[in-house]
Description:
The protein is an all-alpha fold. The chain contains 11 helices and no strands.
Amino acid sequence: xxxxxxxxxxxxxxxxxxxxxxxxxxxxxxxxxxxxxxxxxxxxxxxxxxxxxxxxxxxxxxxxxxxxxxxxxxxxxxxxxxxxxxxxxxxxxxxxxxxxxxxxxxxxxxxxxxxxxxxxxxxxxxxxxxxxxxxxxxxxxxxxxxxxxxxxxxxxxxxxxxxxxxxxxxxxxxxxxxxxxxxxxxxxxxxxxxxxxxxxxxxxxxxxxxxxxxxxxxxxxxxxxxxxxxxxxxxxxxxxxxxxx
Length: 245
């Protein structure tokens, strides 16, 4: 019970917001008359496939970014390669500073259209938050703590795994959450290069002037982003060592 009392307010608030928006959308959906095109797009069998493809695109891109950015961030905090940190961060910053649509179109010329190209474009776009937070999280670990662990005989690798990374976990996972939310929103643009996503509802709504379809797509993307952000917050909370806020 005492553990529950220490749970941050946002962990309780966000699911309530999700619930309110979800119920509001469900009520609106049931009380609205849709055209044949809107009904076909929002039919559960089609919508389920679209949502799952959107989630698949987001998760695959996130896993690849995590595999690239976290080890790279760890490497760049080591004294021997520390001097390369500004170069790596600036390169990652270029990926996020570039317009997402522009990145996807450029990769289309190289890789063609479809799921693979969308994943590559999203990976390039989302590297910076995780890379930057990994570096920041490890940098903020008290140097005296590191020296103490080395003083009791820990190797550099053991110090990293058992001391530095656990203390940096909250900051690193916050970067992963940020990247996930960015990817959920940006994945909607993959529809322009032939990858299935919730962006299909939005672009169809705009192209055919079907505002109800556009609204549905926007609300579903927003709900998905909130749900993923909340789940990421739960993981962040669970993985944070006790005594670290």
